[in-house]
Write a structure and sequence with these properties.
Blueprint lengths: L6 H5 L5 H8 L5 E3 L4 H5 L4 H9 L9 E6 L5 E3 L13 H9 L3 E4 L7 H14 L2 E9 L14 E8 L1 E9 L22 E6 L3 E4 L3 E7 L4 E9 L3 H15 L16 H14 L2 H19 L8 H4 L11 E3 L5 E5 L3 E6 L2 E6 L3 H9 L2 E2 L10 H13 L3 E3 L5
Antiparallel strand pairs: 1-9, 2-3, 2-4, 4-5, 5-11, 6-9, 6-11, 7-8, 7-10, 12-16, 12-17, 13-14, 14-15
Helix pairs in contact: 7-9
Length: about 400
């Protein structure tokens, strides 16, 4: 049976998900030692790196990078990787650069490696924020990046070799994606924690915490899961957009004297305008829009779903169905219709289907006959078969 990846799987037996969310998420680093070397190697090993590079092609020049911390204390792309007419990187150039001290960076592996796609999707579902994955292959005694902080939370999975990590304090509270602040080495002080990570170890670093890593006498491979969180400011932006669309007062031009007028006058007029808006309904609209956008951008991870598609016709009233692993699912409704949304797809129906859609969105496993809402047996089967065909559901007896 395929591995069922999730945040709980990632954390292992040392800490439960609720404790992690309450005590560590966004707040403090967490180091978990000794999950077993093979566990992370099964996702990605050094032997896999050649295959990924050799099968890489296309216009994205950021999918493979070579980086090294230079003498000035900067982390730079040490070489521009040459490519052929099909966009395939020169693997021999990468071999040479690696032996001379460069770290090989493989970006967006959630779009290129099935196991990593499933892992990123499982973590994303549990945290309800988009999650990507990069891999870093470093030579002996190598350092690809100088001390820096990320604008997203990261989980570091050490798959092979060892690497020494130093984590300093939080340099900035919850930095935004646009924050490119360069860290002065003399401003760091001593690390608040240091770890020599070995295969199977896990390190969580919240965004804003400065960190650095270097190999310790052996080749090192680690995966970084980056959690790109939606923030309250994203919701507020949606609220303002909703209000602007609905209220023409917000779309009027600023006064032709706004550059020279008394600032207090502009502040007063702005405050009067803010007070005139019914923000409650726009907050509700903003929440709905942000949820819809998030689910629409989400994508399924590969799990062999074509096998289920070949068995749709055998689904009966008592067939055990379940949601596909990692699939994000919500419902929407208005007076005339209802919808169930999942990973870039949507199934719409009359408002009377809302109880059934909500049941499906919340249930982990069920039978067609369990659907509520006073539906006929034929309607229940039609809905369930449709949701298997469209990629939300699968059969329990299928090994995924």
């Amino acid at each position: 049976m395929a591995e069922q990846f999730s945040l709980a799987w990632l954390l292992g037996d040392d800490i439960d998900v609720a404790t992690f969310k309450n005590e560590y998420w966004e707040e403090q680093p967490l180091y978990l030692q000794g999950h077993g070397v093979q566990r992370f190697q099964d996702i990605l090993s050094v032997r896999d790196i050649d295959e990924i590079i050799c099968l890489t092609s296309g216009a994205n020049r950021n999918d493979v990078r070579l980086v090294q911390a230079d003498d000035a204390g900067l982390s730079v792309d040490s070489h521009a990787i040459s490519r052929d007419s099909r966009g395939r990187p020169n693997v021999h150039q990468i071999y040479t650069a690696f032996t001379k001290g460069d770290t090989v960076v493989l970006n967006e592996l959630q779009n290129r490696v099935a196991a990593i796609a499933s892992l990123a999707k499982g973590v994303s579902q549990d945290l309800q924020h988009a999650t990507g994955a990069n891999a870093y292959l470093s030579p002996k005694n190598g350092q690809g990046f100088m001390p820096h902080f990320d604008t997203h939370d990261v989980f570091v999975l050490q798959t092979e070799g060892s690497k020494k990590w130093s984590v300093y304090g939080r340099y900035r509270d919850f930095p935004q994606c646009s924050d490119k602040t360069r860290i002065a080495a003399d401003s760091l002080g001593k690390p608040v924690c240091s770890y020599t990570m070995k295969g199977g170890d896990l390190l969580y670093i919240p965004r804003g915490f400065v960190h650095e890593a270097n190999t310790v006498g052996s080749v090192s491979l680690h995966i970084t899961l980056g959690v790109h969180s939606l923030c309250w400011s994203d919701l507020i932006a949606e609220v303002i957009e909703s209000a602007t669309e609905a209220d023409p007062k917000l779309r009027r031009a600023l006064p032709t004297t706004f550059l020279t007028a008394d600032s207090a006058e502009l502040v007063n007029r702005a405050m009067e305008l803010i007070k005139s808006v019914d923000w409650t309904r726009h907050v509700e609209s903003g929440v709905a829009n942000l949820r819809r956008t998030t689910v629409d951008k989400s994508r399924v991870s590969p799990d062999g779903h074509f096998e289920a598609l070949g068995q749709v016709d055998v689904i009966e009233a008592d067939t055990r169905l379940k949601r596909r692993p990692g699939v994000t699912c919500i419902t929407e409704d208005d007076r005339e219709s209802s919808s169930i949304l999942f990973d870039g797809n949507r199934v719409r129906g009359p408002a009377t289907l809302l109880p059934a859609f909500r049941f499906i969105a919340e249930a982990q496993e069920f039978r067609p006959r369990d659907l509520p809402g006073g539906l006929s047996g034929r309607s229940r089967l039609t809905i369930c078969k449709r949701l298997v065909k469209d990629g939300l559901l699968t059969m329990r007896n299928i090994d995924i």
